[in-house]
Design goal:
The protein is an all-alpha fold. It folds into two domains: 46 residues, no CATH class; 222 residues, MetI-like (MetI-like fold, Orthogonal Bundle), CATH 1.10.3720. Helix content is 75%, strand content 2%. The protein has twelve helices and two strands. Strands 1-2 form a two-stranded antiparallel sheet. Strand 1 and strand 2 form a beta hairpin.
Length: 281
């Protein structure tokens, strides 16, 4: 929306309507068309027999599987219980990775000594495959929840540390020197300079790390688990229950999108200045 000002110039101002009442943008329409096209292709391939239903079932069969698992359950647990178990494991491992990774990343970004001490270990285990780590964790911690949470924690930790180091090292030194010249303590530097300045990049690293942790979930749940969306997918695949597998993958993807949206909303609430920067731009 626009208005005229002195001199005949036109100035834009924010639309006061709620976001859900606004007309969808061209890019939102493209996204909706992309999803509709993929769904239509799935229906077309299965409806006209171009794919074996044993490996690619019809969307109706997947929906019926969703209703059945949600109401009657799969292997003794309903879909809500499977999702809840997986979300607990994801959030426990990821939260621990944030609690350790963000302070450690700040320390490594600020101190060369801390970087020299911790960087070799992080760079060594970061490229190791999750299943390779999991075998060792099972030997050390057993087949219970401890090894699963430890794997998810280790999967999410490197991305958070690297993003935090990058965020801290890109802060303009002028801000740090100005705060020190005004007598800022280390605690004040941390909470009033480093975290506000590095917050957006740290949040991006957390989102990427959460996505990677989510991909490791299936590996964490294939050993001695009796519930969890990843375990359900793995168990159904052994019996060629492709409708349950695809339904589980869709639920896994939707819950991942939901977590990412929540992360972005939390970032907007904790860092409102980033919204002002985008609006001014």
């Amino acid at each position: 929306m626009t208005e005229k000002v002195d001199g005949g110039a036109v100035r834009a101002f924010a639309d006061p309507r709620p976001r859900w009442l606004k007309t969808p943008s061209r890019y939102q329409m493209l996204s909706a068309c992309s999803v509709a096209f993929m769904f239509a292709a799935w229906v077309f391939v299965t409806e006209f027999g171009f794919a074996n239903e044993l490996f690619l079932p019809h969307p109706a069969a997947v929906f019926n599987s969703f209703i059945k698992v949600a109401t009657k359950g799969y292997q003794g647990s309903t879909l809500l219980e499977h999702v809840g178990t997986s979300l607990y494991r994801i959030m426990a491992g990821f939260s621990l990775a944030c609690l350790v990774g963000i302070p450690l990343g700040i320390a490594m970004g600020v101190s060369r000594a801390a970087n020299a001490v911790f960087n070799p270990a992080i760079e060594f285990y970061r490229p190791l495959p999750p299943l390779g780590l999991y075998t060792l964790l099972v030997m050390w911690l057993g087949i219970g929840e401890e090894s699963k949470l430890a794997l998810l924690f280790l999967a999410g930790l490197p991305g958070i540390i690297i993003a935090t180091i990058q965020a801290v090292t890109t802060i303009d030194p002028i801000y740090v020197r100005a705060a020190r010249s005004l007598g800022a303590t280390r605690r004040q530097l941390l909470f009033q300079v480093y975290l506000p300045g590095a917050g957006p990049i740290i949040l991006t690293g957390m989102r990427i790390s959460l996505g990677f942790t989510y991909t490791v979930l299936v590996a964490a749940e294939i050993v001695a688990a009796t519930a969890g969306i990843g375990w359900m997918i793995w168990d159904a695949a052994k019996f060629l229950l492709s409708d349950v597998v695809i339904m589980g993958l869709i639920v896994l993807g939707l819950t991942g999108v939901m977590l990412d949206v929540i992360m972005r909303l939390v970032g907007k609430l904790l860092m409102p200045w980033t919204r002002r920067q985008r609006t001014n731009a």
